[in-house]
Amino acid sequence: MSETYFLGSSTANGFVTTFDSIIKDEKMFTYILKGGAGTGKSSLMKKVANEVENYEHVLRYHCSSDPDSLDAVVLTESGVVIVDGTAPHVFDPIIPGVNQKIVNLGDYWNEDLLKANKENIVNAINANKSALDRARRFTAALTNIFSDTCHIGSDSLLYKKTESFISRFKKKILPKKGNGTGKTSLFQLSALTRYGYLTYTETLDDYFDIYYLKDEYYAATDFILKAVAVEATARNFDVIISPCQLFAYENYEHLLIPELGIAIVGANPMTNLCLDNGKIINASRFYDKKLIAQKKSRLKLNKTTYADLCKETAYTLENAKIIHDEIEKYYIEAMNFDKINEITENIISEIKSKHQ
Fold it and tell me: Looking at 50-64, 262-276, 341-355, which range is the least confident one?
């Protein structure tokens, strides 16, 4: 079994990730990879994950700017984490040598080759930063637009009707007691990427009860998911919350209850999700239609604006990726990949030894 998430994402408040909670878990041993673009961090993690997947539960964490790149893998059976510890998600050892170990891939590059291309590398890194900064500004603007739509939704929400639904829904899906500890984990299932707003639906393959909350105004989804999460944890069910990047992690977008095989998924204009294997909950019934109608022009403007901004953000992230590939080219030429392969094999051997 494997799961796929994003490590974090750019928000109106900067880059946000909750991955440090995994590194702080004293039951886990973390390899923190250091090194620039093109030093083989993502390839190393992909190779390890593919090698051990037949006997390990693997969690893959992708880069939101470039979903083709891995930022981390977590191997739950062996208690091993491998993570990219470079900006924007900088991680350092907490208990060095005991619970975390730095693997510096920069030890295996040819500095003379890099210095020979100094001007080109500096220019490319600055251009990449400029593109990512622009994408972050677009994300901040999107947050303002989404928040405005959500405020309209909150002001129009029929709370008593929604609470009545929540009461019936909880009775339907939640047994009296779970076998967990009531733990809440934050994993990001959706993010704005160079491919647009992307959701890792393959993570839902192991959930046999999927509910799609069809919601244009976001407020009902957040209200329902938070209420269900509180009740589920009170009954000792462990839950996975996927907060929404475009609300700066303040709103819930998806809720997973692994023990019950239940997923409640936000099917909003951004995720645009409505798969054949799920049950649709139409959230429009939870809003006062007259109040929504009074804000029709404003909601229409918001919808058009955020559609345009999302396209521009994806385009900017695609440009950043092109520049990033240019940076990688210089480092790939300077790397001793025989040494990187040796490190990879050593890590795989250390993981396998935990199963002997």
Answer: 262-276
Which residues is 6 bridged to in the sheet? 62, 188
CA dist 322 and 153 (Å) reads: 39
Q: Report the alpha-carbon angle 206-210-216, nearest 5.
A: 135
- 117, with CB counted inside 10 A (0-12, 13-18, 19+), is middle
Residue spans of beta strands (DSSP E) within 219-298: 239-243, 252-257, 262-267, 279-282
| Cα angle, residue 278 at apex, residues 277 and 281 outer, rounded to 5° | 160
- The closest of 33, 46, 42, 103 to 324, measured between CA atoms, is 42
Largest CA-CA distance found in the chain, in angstroms, rounded:
69
Q: What is the pLDDT of residues 75-104, one digit of tens each?
A: 999 999 999 999 888 999 999 999 999 999
Q: Which helix (H) or strand (E) holds 212?
A: strand 209-214
Helix-helix angle 118-156:296-334, to 10 degrees: 160
Reduced to 3 states (helix: H, G, I; strand: E, B; else coil), residue 45 is helix
Report whether pLDDT(301) > 70.
yes
- Rounded to whole angstroms, the Cα distance separating 279 from 98 reads 47
- Cα separation, 309 vs 138, in Å, equals 7
Q: Which residue in 183, 138, 201, 151 sits closest to 10, CA to CA? A: 138
Contact assessment for residue 58 and residue 73, using Cβ atoms and an 8 Å cutoff: yes
CB-based contacts of 304: which residues, under 8 Å, 6+ apart?
none
Contacts of 23 (CB under 8 A, 6+ apart): 30, 32, 81, 83, 91, 94, 100
Q: Which of 333, 348, 349, 350 is nearest to 108 (CA)?
A: 333
Pairing type for strands 9-11 and 58-62 reads: unpaired
Compute how many other C-beta atoms are within 10 angstroms of the C-beta atom of residue 254: 26
Sign for the pseudo-dihedral over CA of 293, 296, 299, 300: positive
